[in-house]
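WARN no homologs supplied; continuing
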Amino acid sequence: MAIREATSEALEQYLKVLSEMLPGGFESAVRQLGIRKPGQKLPKSIKQGKKKECFKNALLLAEARGWTYCEGFAHAIIPTHHAWVLDDKGNVVDPTWDEPEKCFYAGILFDTDKAIDLCNESGLYGLFYTKTFLPFIKDFEKLKTLMKT
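OK structure emitted
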């Protein structure tokens, strides 16, 4: 089995198990509403951001380029809460991790302006684990209003 296929399957299994343990949680939202994509090398035109600042790196890149902010889970060695962007061709652009081409991504595509508003409201980068975002995760129909259409 290819490494990418194993990574994809491991991430799906992670989302499945946690969705069953915590119905209606973040993992359930990603499993039901999210996209799945393989990573790719960081384009040479994109400067790599600071390590451990994926939410900030992704949101600022999405805003600067007019791309789509994505938040969910990525898998390299273990599934991790993570953020990245989709470029205008639908490719994963991960400005934080080394070797994103070896990773697999599952996450929700957010309207970048709405994500920025929520981050400004909470005072934090990242959406899933903030009080501001909690009402949206408890109501998937409400969550859909934040998603890129």
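The chain has one domain: 3-144.
OK
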